[in-house]
# Entry
Amino acid sequence: MTQKSIVIKSALDARQAAYFVQTAGKYEAEIHISVDEKKINAKSIMGTIALNMQEGQTAVITADGKDETAAVEELAAVLA
# Structure
């Protein structure tokens, strides 16, 4: 399992959330993102929108699978 904490650079609108989910969907690993007490599947558009990520919040991206490291690094780059 690979995990990384990042500070969100800017709030995600619907288009950015869709891009985040598309990026997560490229990977076979099981990917989750958590902000505060909420944890969602990063491949879920509804979950990502419901998470309501805002600028300055700390997010933790966790992935488990054969391409987990690449998944975490790319998704962190999308948010940071």
User: Anything to note?
Assistant: The longest strand covers residues 58-64. Strands lie at 2-7, 30-35, 38-41, 58-64.
